[in-house]
Structure formats: C-alpha cells, structure tokens
Amino acid sequence: MAQKPSIPKGTRDFSPTEVAKRNYIIQTIKKHFEVYGFQPIETPSFENSETLMGKYGDEGDRLIFKILNSGDFISKVDDVTYSSKNSASLTPKITEKALRYDLTVPFARYVVMHQNEIDFPFKRYQIQPVWRADRPQKGRFREFYQCDADVVGAKSLLQEVEFVQLYDAVFTALGLKGTTIKINNRKVLSGIAEVIGAKHLLIDFTVALDKLDKIGEEGVKKEMLAKGISESAIDKASPLFAMSGSSMEQLEQLKSLLVESEIGMAGVAELDEITRNVEALGLQSAQLQLDVTLARGLNYYTGAIFEVSAPEDVKMGSIGGGGRYDDLTGIFGLKDISGVGISFGLDRIYLVMEELNLFPSSVSKSVDVLCVNFGNQESMAALKLVNQMRAKGIKAEVYPTNTKMQKQMKYANSRNIPYVVLIGAQELEQEQFVVKDMAQGTQQTYSLGNSEEFTEHL
RNA sequence: GUGGUUGUAGCUCAGCUGGUUAGAGCGCUGGAUUGUGGUUCCAGAGGUCGCCGGUUCGAACCCGGUCUUCCACCCCA
C-alpha cells in the first residue's frame, strides 16, 4: 500500500525559485563576511551530546534533538535507570550524539580543539543549518540556517563597532531598509541588578525586563514580584521603564542610576564607546538603538548584546542576534579567550524580504536564453549557437522537443527567460537567428557567424 | 512542554440548522492561431473534503483521536 509522503513538522522542501532566493541572501552575506576578513569553517551536523548539553540552559537542553545510539543500546542500560522511567536519567545513556543547536558552541569547541593551528585573533564565518525541537510557528522552524561571524582572541571594542557596520552593510545590500540594531550590555544589566539588590536574581530580573515592550510596565513588575524580587528593588529599577531619548541621553540616565556599581559603569562606558564610534562612522540604512531591556542569550554573553529587528511594518521576531562572550571556550578548557559575534537568521530574512517584495526578478531567472526547437536540423544549429554562448558563461538551452511554438514560448515566459532565440528553416537558410526580447516583445535578427553581436549585450 | 487554531481542485478560498451528481476565481490542457509568450474568446480535465474511528437512514458539516498549519505562553534566528 502506497503511503502518503510527508516531511517532519517544522521542516520544508525548497523549490528551484526558493533555493535561488535563499542563495541570493547567502551569497550577499558571504560576500560581506569575506570583505570584512572572515574565513569560512564548517562543523559536523551532530556533536557529542556533552558538547551541547548544559550550554543553553534547561530550556535549551529540552530543545536539543538527541540522536538515538546505534545497536542494541537498550540492553546496555542498567536496570535501575531502565525501570526508573525517568527521561532525564535515561536519555544520556541512550543518546551519545545530538544535532547542532546553534553555531556558536560548536565554534567554541572548534577553537579549543584547533587552538594550535589557529592564528589569533581568529575571524571565522559559518553558514549551516541548525536544529531545534521547538514547536513551529511563523518564522520558527525545527531546521533552519544561521549565518554566523565571530572573532575570538581580541578584546577590543572595535569588533563590536565593525559588527554593527557589517549588519548595516548586509541589510543595505539586500535592500532591507529600516532595520533596527538593538544594543545592550550584560554588564549594565548586572550593574542594575546589583544596585537594586537583586544580584542573585539577575536572570529572572532581565528575562522579565526583556518583556517590557510586550507586556508593559505593570506586567513586568508583576513578573518580577512573582520571581521573588522585592518591591523596593523594583522601585529602584523603575527609571528603566521610562528610559527615553537618544542613546546618548539614555546613557546619561544610566550613569546616574549606576554610579554605585563598578561593573554597571564599565558596561555604560563600553556602550558609550561603541555608540560614539558607530555614530562617527555612520550607517547606511540601519539604525543603532540602545535598548536596556534587551536581554537575550544571557547564558553566555558577558558584554555587548545585539539583536536585529525587521522593519517596523513587518511582523517578525528578530532576524539576527549576537554579542560578546568573554569565556565561552573556558567550558572546554581554554581560558581567557574573548569572543564576539553576530548571527543572521536566513529563513526569517527570507520571509521578510518576500513580504516586502525585495527579491530582484533576476534572482529567479533560470536561464538567459532559450532556443526554440524547430526540428532536427534547426535544433543542431541552435545547439551550436548555445555552445558558443555557454563558452562565454551565458546560461543557454535548447527546448528539447519539437513541439508547437506556442508551447515553447509559454514555457520561456513562465520560466522568466529574458531572451528567446528562433532558428527555423528560413533563418537556417540565410544563416541567421532571430532574438526575441521577452520583456519588450521586440525582435532582432543577427548573423549566425557573428553571434557576439548579440551576446556582448548580455 | 502548556493552551488554542487551521486543513475542501495545483493555488486562494466559498459550501445554509447534517440531505442526492461538492462550487468559484486563478492556474493547467486543448482549440480559435500549422513561426510567436505575457492580453482576449471557446471547450475540457482535475477533489479518498488531512488521516483514522464513532454518532446517524444519511457526515465536508456533529463527536473522539491523530497529523499538519498558524497563534499565545515558554524560548528564540
């Protein structure tokens, strides 16, 4: 019995047009990564479980796809664990491998393993799929691509400035205007937690603060209370809810709030330097915005935190994120290596560009030239011409069968082919070929012996 | 992982309180047009109503389960 085919939830097939559009984004990102001096690496799709587990928090562990061991794995489990029916204790005994959850942790592992071959500072980029056992939504998949660029082994804040410029350069090149690059600093968040006396509740505090734009001031306060943050502490933090004005103005407000906190002031100083330098260099189409409520990736970020949101009129989560992590490689035994990086969410950028109609029509063009097939003799002449064009790198093909012209023209039209070449009996006799410009509807005749006359315009 | 939502032709969607052969637009195929697509006209093909089970004389419609989509939470690209 034939089964109805399907693919797992949260995964997708990509048609030729979709692949072309995805490649267009990838090529643009790749080009800029390389222009900025990053070098590509690739890592395996799956890692040893212990490399990934525990690096993304409890929530992260739950979302990691585990790979079942091969062979008779269940007989190797001891009876106590087996009969406990406890997933948490059974899982590590039957799954030694897991699918990559992001590109940053595998990169940290890579750096530690190859530390003796690497020239620091090491600037690498990596464009590969990652997997998360999340419940899918719009713009949220179980298999998706991340495009990461990171620098390890350099503490200078110049890197942060460059990453902001890199974001701006890529989004400008893609024609994606009006993106907002939000920036914050983990040290500022630590400072605030310290000043209000909730140092031990930093994560709870920041996770709640992060929701300000979503659930409002009252909602945030309520959540903080629920997490055990005292009312007086929340009161002290209240200036945060009313932060406004330019980045510089907000920094001034932060300075007065954080005078007592050494770490907080260090964060303010970093933000100050980064924003000043970005402002001095200027951005083309993106906007840099200080956002003290931004609190992503706290499991490893230690300094700057970035998040990019799509233009306002598009409903989409962040299309990029990143930050500085002072000791990511520490967990793998390599101390004192600072890293900072950013990530582009290919699939979400795709959805945003599709919604805003930003893909150039040339992206989905399959070939440049299609020759109509009029029969054996004629198509041989066409093949000859096509070979000349292919030698010049022009994408050209001959329609494979001698069907009616209407059908061939329709085919060219629906495949978005800009030029159709006609070599029929008449043309063959006169050693000519006719080129129809599909967009204009115009036709022009060229000599078969002098095809350059046509091809040099392409 | 929790709560909800969606599924009808290739696509976008109609389909009355359950009632006979389930419709439209677009697309597709053929013809008007034997050397001209994108415009026009005519004709035609195409559907186990997501899947499994139940209620009923009778189910696209009601009930249960399941898969999928999307949404909120969680978290995140």
UniProtKB/TrEMBL annotation:
Pfam family, one: HGTP_anticodon
GO molecular function: histidine-tRNA ligase activity
Record domain Aminoacyl-transfer RNA synthetases class-II family profile: where: 1-400
EC supergroup of this enzyme: ligase
Entries under SUPFAM superfamilies matching the protein: Class II aaRS ABD-related (SSF52954), Class II aaRS and biotin synthetases (SSF55681)
Gene3D superfamilies: Anticodon-binding domain (3.40.50.800), Bira Bifunctional Protein, Domain 2 (3.30.930.10)
Superkingdom of this protein's organism: Bacteria
EC number(s) recorded for this UniProt protein: 6.1.1.21
Location(s), subcellular: Cytoplasm
Catalysis: reaction(s): tRNA(His) + L-histidine + ATP = L-histidyl-tRNA(His) + AMP + diphosphate + H(+)
Keywords: Aminoacyl-tRNA synthetase, ATP-binding, Cytoplasm, Ligase, Nucleotide-binding, Protein biosynthesis
Keyword ATP-binding in annotation: yes
Family: Belongs to the class-II aminoacyl-tRNA synthetase family.
Subunit structure, as described in the record: Homodimer.
Protein name (database record): Histidine--tRNA ligase
Species this protein is from: Flagellimonas algicola
Lineage: Bacteria, Pseudomonadati, Bacteroidota, Flavobacteriia, Flavobacteriales
